[in-house]
Amino acid sequence: MKIDLSGKSALVCGASQGIGEACAQSLAACGANVTLVARSEQKLKEVVKTLPSGNHQIFLADLSNKQQVQKLVDHISKTGFDILINNTGGPQPGPITDASLEEFENGIQAHLFASHQLVQASIPTMKAKGFGRIINIISTSVKIPIPGLGVSNTIRGAMASWAKSMSNELAQHGITVNNILPGLIETPRLMSLIEQTAKQQELDIDVVSENFKSTVPSGRFGQPSEIGNMVAFLASEYGAYINGTSIPVDGGRTGAI
Q1: Which of 15, 40, 88, 107 is deepest in the core (most CB within 10 A)?
Q2: What is the pLDDT at residue 159?
Q3: CB distance 116 to 162 below 8 Å
C-alpha cells in the first residue's frame, strides 16, 4: 500500500515544530503541496527547506489573534485546500478551579473559534471537488481528562463534539472529519510539562521523564512522525470511510476502550 497525495494541497497549522512539522513532512513525502502556518517566519523557512520537493509555501499567523486568523481565512477562501490540519499549542497547565475566564477565552479562540473559521473557509473548495479531509490534532483528554490540564481538557472536549457534529453534515460531500489524540509525544510541549512537574515535585528531570514513560504500556514516548503517519493515512484514499472518529495514538496509555 502506497499513499499518494500527488496533486493534493494541504494547509498545516502549527507547522514550525513538533507534531505540526511532522504532519507537514508526512504529507509532503506523499506528494502533497503543503502550506505551513505558524508564528515564526524563521522556523517555517527552516522546515520548508527540509521538505521533499513540491510547491510548498509558508503563511505567518498566530491563531490566538483574530485579525491574523482573518487574514488566513481570506487566503484559504482565495486558494482553497484539499486537506486541513487544525493543530494549535495547548493552553497553560493548571487546576481548572484556578483558571481565569481569560484563559478559557484565549484557549477557545486559538482552538475552537480559529478552527471553525478555517473549516468554513475550506468547505466551498472541498465541496466543489467532492473531496476533503479535515483532521484535528487534539488530545487523549477527549477520552479521559488529564489531571492538571483543566482548561485544555475543557477545550479539547469542545473540539471533539464540534468535529463530530460537523462530520455528519459534510460526509455526503466526500469530506471526512476526524480527530487524532496524541499521547505522550516527544515534543517541546511535553518536555515543558516534564520540567514543570520536576520543579513542582522537586525531582530530577530524568526521574520525572521515566515516571511519565512508566504510564505508557509501550514503555516509551511517541515520535511526532507517528502522528504524521496517521495524518497521511487519514488524508489519503484509504481513509475515505473513516469519519467522525477520535483516534488515540498513545502507545496504549489511554485507559478507555
Answers
A1: 15
A2: 97
A3: yes
Is 200 found in the same domain as 100?
A: no
Distances (CA, A) of 44 to 6, 20, 30, 34, 250: 22, 11, 19, 12, 27
> What is the arithmetic mean of pLDDT over 182-187?
96
- Taking 90 as the threshold, does the pLDDT of residue 1 lie above it? no
Residue pair 58/50 in contact by the 8 Å Cβ criterion: no
Residue 201 has which C-alpha cell?
A: 515535585
Instruction: Identify whether residues 163 and 211 lie together within a single domain.
Output: no
The identity of residue 146, as a single letter, is I
pTM over 0.85: yes
Give the contacts of 188 (CB within 8 A, at least 6 positions apart).
17, 18
Residue 4 domain-assigned? Answer: no
Domain that holds residue 203: 186-221
Q: Tell whether 254 is covered by a domain.
A: no
List Cα–Cα distances, 205 to 3, 182, 199, 212, 219, in angstroms. 39, 22, 8, 11, 17
Q: What is the pLDDT of residue 40?
A: 96
Q: What is the mean pLDDT of the chain?
A: 96
